[in-house]
């Protein structure tokens, strides 16, 4: 039997580092953490720059480098040890996490990871935390207030818009708990948007009934105003301006109806839950209580270019709440976009 000759493999070059970890020592709230520093360099420009600084020297000429020993750790003030431990769990998953696919963290742990990864500009870890908090698992479900708060504090664009929009779409005034969580500035914006988006915003209540402005009478299809210019009442000749909310009296106020919008559109969180509409034939001049519209006038929409049924004239126009949110919170959203770009 012929002998088998084995080819001699070259000896590995000992100067080529593969799994040679440099340890860095951190101190947080009195607790010591010793971990490989490579991932801090890989995930964070801030730590990469820190570790790339030349070492200072003490009076004896010895290198004085923090983080190389327990006696001289890098102290992270202003953070909790539990927050830092959660970050390390995300950065250094165990072998069982990887092999069994069982990596799970609590809601509070993911929030801690999101907080620190945002502060230290760890983009990949930050996105990992956002994904973890968006997983939908029972342990990490976020409410509308949670999304609004986390979006504001940790600059997450989608959560900020979704959370605020959902709060406004509920139609309920902010609770004391929400005010404490979100802060007066955010809640002030929310209350203002709710007023702007309300289908009742163009109505005014008087001692005799309900009134509205001439400019608030709009096409039910395109939501454009029927009138571009003021009118003179056909009965008493009084001038009816476009923006006077007490100019048009709505006879038979109960005729002001709520028109439900399609459920799919309501769930898009871009509109209020209904429009308000009136019977255009029941509009009266608030001064003389007679029909202010000239008899020759027809309810003709200049945009749609078609005559409309006067029995269904829209007053409360649906607003895109999401657009109002983006306008009111434009400074905060710009900070969110900057966080993603940095």
Automatic annotation (TrEMBL):
Pfam families assigned: BTB (PF00651)
SUPFAM superfamilies tied to this protein: POZ domain
Gene3D superfamilies reported for this sequence: Potassium Channel Kv1.1, Chain A (3.30.710.10)
InterPro entries according to UniProt: BTB/POZ_dom, SKP1/BTB/POZ_sf
CDD domains hit by this protein: BTB_POZ_ZBTB_KLHL-like
Boundaries of every BTB domain copy: 24-129
Name the record gives this protein: BTB domain-containing protein
